[in-house]
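Two quick folds needed for the group meeting slides. Do the first one here.
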Amino acid sequence: MGQDAVENGASVSLASSSDDRHPPSNIVDGDSRTFWVSTGLYPQEFIIELDQPYDISEVKLIACNIKQLSISKCETQDADVFSSAVQDIKFGPEANGQLIDQTFKASFQAKHVKFTILEGWSDFCAVYKVGLIS
């Protein structure tokens, strides 16, 4: 198994919503008990900024209430132009109110990775952790 690029000082550079009790920074804090929660309506998105560009081979996600998700990438220093990396990830009814722990095969290089939650099983969703394995 490769190295998790998130563990090398990643940050959440943007999130479409924020709750002071469950901020976006919880996604990359290394604590499996903390999470970011959306504040309603879809789509929701967040961008993880890595310390340098990485060749990503797997994406790990621990989340709740996500029904459909897409992942985009940006290789440059400035997070200005994103292109599709992994699209149309769908979660079945098992994600409705339940914590899911999924790993997706991937093949892309990125300095910034955007997660767009297109649809949820509820008005709110939560993301506990993201791993970007190189």
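Then this one, please, same format:
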Amino acid sequence: MLPMRNRNRAICRIALRWARPARALATGQEGGALVELAMALPIMLALLTAIVSFGMAFSNQLTLTQGLGTSAQFLQQIRTTTTDPCADTMNALSQAAPTLKKTNIILMITMNGTTVSGSSCSGSQSNLIQGQPVTVAATYPCSLMVYGVTLSSTCRLGAQVTEYEY
């Protein structure tokens, strides 16, 4: 057993070891970084979510533009053999842009000055005249949401391609 004097020193050392963190917390020296993180983290996560949401919309825009170019070229190639240019163009677009929902795409085709829209325009093949340009346009809805808050309710992606045959 330790003499009384040494025992008191040991107890004091143990008490001081536990008292330092408690004293630091009581004076506000520790935990500031945790409070700052707790305040900044929701803002950083909202910003990250907004960046991802805009990135997805931009990806859909690129997909729509590339798919529309492919479908317009396809329509230009089959202009003399098609019986339903809108359906053939829509099928080509849905194959070229598989990540976009076919039911949400609004397609408009201008052939020889006549504009038709929809996924079927049987009988309009007579407007596909040799040497005349064909313009294919499409719109697609986009959703810009951050934590359930819609940033834009009227967001529509659009693309237009004109193909010329010489």
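Slide caption for protein two: The CA atoms of residues 67 and 96 lie 5 Å apart.
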